[in-house]
From TrEMBL:
It comes from Chromatium okenii. It comes from the Bacteria. Keywords: Plasmid. This is DUF2283 domain-containing protein.
Length: 69
């Protein structure tokens, strides 16, 4: 579990990023086209990002599965 979670939202780009670790990693596709997971070199999820986050509201929730190793 992360000691600190970093959240970054860019309103102009409508982009949300959440990081559980500052470790080096890369973006990986998920089962939802708006969501990318950030994984480290061993495949552990260390964060995620959501593109077009404002389109997900109560009547249109975001459902994506992040796979943990």
């Amino acid at each position: 579990m992360a000691n600190k979670i970093k959240v970054w939202f860019d309103a102009e780009a409508d982009f949300l990023e959440v990081r559980f670790s500052d470790a080096a990693g890369y973006e990986k596709e998920t089962n939802h086209d708006a969501v990318m997971e950030r994984v480290d070199e061993t495949g552990n999820v260390i964060g995620f990002s959501i593109m077009g986050v404002s389109r997900f509201r109560e009547n249109n929730p975001l459902v994506a599965e992040l796979v943990t190793a």
